[in-house]
Amino acid sequence: MLIKRPDDIRSSDITSESIYKERRRFMQGAIGAGLVAGIGLNIPSDATAKEKAIINQDFPKLPKSAFNISDELTTYKDITTYNNFYEFGTDKSDPARYAHTLQTRPWSIRVEGEVENAGNIDIEEVLKLFTLEERIYRLRCVEGWSMVIPWVGFPLQALLKRFKPTSKAKYVMFVTKNDPKQMPGVRNTLLHWPYVEGLRIDEAMNPLTLLAVGLYGNVLPNQNGAPLRLVVPWKYGFKSIKSIVEIRLVEKPPITTWMRAAPSEYGFYSNVNPEVSHPRWSQKRERRIGHFFKQDTLMFNGYGEQVADLYTGMNLTKNF
User: Fold this and answer.
1) Helices 17-32 and 49-58, interaxial angle, to 10°?
2) Is residue 280 part of a domain?
3) How many angstroms separate the CA atoms of 94 and 81, rounded?
4) How far is Cα 22 from Cα 32, in angstroms, rounded to an integer?
5) 21 FRET partner, CA 20 to 30 A, in 155, 213, 263, 278?
């Protein structure tokens, strides 16, 4: 099936002047913190002249991650106009249309639960952690469709270690911002709000589990989860929670949003496993956005070398 996209989305709807200004603030903060040496960024061929100028002038050069893959990148346009972000609507084009209402400053993240140093951390402090762990991660991300996205981010463990998890911390729960004034999608009852996701603590501490603050050399667009989102590339996309405001370390597995909505269809682990079919469709094949033909889905989305040992001895059909 061909995926159709509306042709009436103006560039001003996708990237407003306020977002450009926010990008500049982010870039200046990163430069001021001392980000320098590295290799150049991949500038998207479909970026506007204004976006290219911002990338060239303001964003520091960053080293690539060891996790980079050689797959062809999904275009910037597709990444930023074909999204799941139900807080702004259920259609794939809704987030790009409506997420401009999200205010990403001021922004802080509450870290609490089984930690020694519970408290709030402002997004500007998070960006200082980013300067210590600068990376470009060129990663696959998959749902029933897939993309290859050059994320700018750092391992989640860098943030969690700052708050010193205790021995009772077995799971990590994440919560998205919940504001009907800014996020029109939460006014409906399709899902139980706020959006909640979770990981096991060893999954959260794996170096492939990222906090993303940008993509394609740009500050993270609102529709992609600004100002801070999770990226767990060996799991299905709905595990990579967006616009995070709370991280809670707990002893028991949290009930996630999609587990609550459809427990027979969405399990806690949600690993990419082509041998486990969704009750309503097979997951053996996937279509990469921008491509016509489907391709085989890879176990753990191709990241088995990095994560398979996390699930040694587990029945991955039962623990889906």
Assistant:
1) 10
2) no
3) 8
4) 15
5) 155
- When pLDDT is averaged across residues 53-82 and rounded to a whole number, the result is 74
- Please tell me the pTM assigned to this model: 0.83
- Rg (C-alpha) for the chain, rounded Å, is 19
63 vs 205, residue with greater confidence: 205
Distance of CA 297 to the CA centre of its chain: 20
- Rounded Cα gap, residues 132 and 113, in angstroms: 25
Which residues neighbour 311 within 8 Å (Cβ) at sequence distance 6 or greater? 269, 271, 319
The owner of tokens 């085989």 is: 296
> What are the tokens at 269?
């682990």
Examine residue 316 and state whether it is found in any structural domain, yes or no.
Answer: no
Query: Do the domain assignments include residue 212?
Result: yes
Question: Is 90 inside a domain boundary?
Answer: yes
Calpha distance 320→311 (Å, rounded)? 11
User: Which CATH number do you get for residue 238?
Assistant: 3.90.420.10
Evaluate whether 18 touches 100 at the Cβ level (below 8 Å). Answer: yes
Backbone angles phi, psi at 51, to 5 degrees: -65, -40
Please give the backbone phi and psi of residue 288, each rounded to the nearest 5 degrees, phi first. Answer: -80, 130
Give the C-alpha separation, 269 to 289, whole Å: 24
